[in-house]
Amino acid sequence: MRVLLKITDIIDVEVLQKIQDSFSDATGFATITVDYKGNPITEYSNFSGYCTKVREDAKCLECCYRSDAHGGIESARSGKPSIYICHGGLVDLAVPIMVKGNYLGAIMSGQIRIDEEGMKKLPLGSVSELTDFSGNPELQKLYDQTMVTTLKQVHAAADLLYTIANYLVEKQMIHIMQEELHNKNLELMEEVKLRSEVEAALKEADLKALQAQINPHFLFNVLNTIGRLALLENAEKTQEMIYAFSDMMRYTLKKENTNIVTLKEEVEHVRNYLSIQKMRLGERLDYSIHIDEDAEEVMCPFMTIQPFVENAINHAIEPHAAGGKVMITGEQDGDIVTVRIIDDGKGIAPELIEKILDGNYDPEAQGNDKNTGIGINNANKRLKYYYGPEFGIKINSEVGKGTEVMIKIPRKALLGRGLNV
């Protein structure tokens, strides 16, 4: 098979990373996107502790690669999502990214468990038997901590990723067609200089542009349809999760070129994120949101609050069997709105707080995902950029007693944008 295009020619990797992260946040599935050779083009989202530990062994790592390769090849062969069991006993899926029959890569997801009946219906991914980790208490504990779901939900996740991949490819192919058409129009103007032909070509370009504007509605129509089907089947929690995830994606896609939003919009995005986490974690997560009505219309940088809430979930709630609490408040005092994100987790050492805010934190040295702290550092930099060096993030934390993040947002001109709010 001859590959004419690279996956990076077809899909905007930054947008794909945002969608991938939102998908992992909503479902709890680990996710990454690879090219046709199996090389990652995005960063891992929600990689499990179990799989991280398993891959420390060279032989196990080779089995992991074989399982992933099998999933990608099977999805490329069929042109449809492939769901299988890895050698470590977890369920994975591969969603192919295809253009005109050519396999460009795949979205790999999973690292979850399902019930025994569901496991019997799945093939073993390219390995003859499961690796026995029963003699390793640490691995067994990490395995027991991995997310448990149903085969039906795995199929739904695979179908959703397949829809998203097709949508992104379709959108970019239209963009490529528009660029080709535009270049032909320029050549036509230079060589022929016939007004009538130029006008006809521009009308065609206008039509393509209109189609490109309409196509983004396709994805949300699909999500809404799934939500309505869930309602008809009396699956209320599934319906709630679909609509919350749909709103999160709509927020991400609409705001990808917009740096400034209202605090109300940002908090609504966080509310959707927490409602999905609540469905996933159940009684382990207790959260509350209280924002002064007068503070809701203050303007703030896009994705200012969400990184801190996500950090609280990942480090204050997830690691503890009993879970914990997250409280978000927003209060206006004169020309300043103060947003607080408070958790009752294990807290952060003072020396780590400084490193996180300065961008010098090494998460891998602390045994954390390499993306840990990036969103926090970015939010701190953007606040200083928009409001001046005296503003930014303040983190108060005491080891063993929890963490409080304070974000001060002034009602004044944003220096980086020149917008008077």
From TrEMBL:
GO cellular component, one term: membrane
Domain Histidine kinase: residue ranges: 214-413
Keywords linked to the UniProt accession: Kinase, Transferase, Two-component regulatory system
Gene Ontology molecular function terms on file: phosphorelay sensor kinase activity
Enzyme Commission (EC) number: 2.7.13.3
Gene3D superfamilies linked to this entry: Histidine kinase-like ATPase, C-terminal domain
Superkingdom classification of source: Bacteria
Database matches in InterPro entries: Bact_2-comp_sensor_kinase (IPR050640), HATPase_C_sf (IPR036890), HATPase_dom (IPR003594), His_kinase_dom (IPR005467), PocR_dom (IPR018771), Sig_transdc_His_kin-like_C (IPR004358), Sig_transdc_His_kin_internal (IPR010559)
Reactions catalysed, as given in the entry: ATP + protein L-histidine = ADP + protein N-phospho-L-histidine
Name of protein: histidine kinase
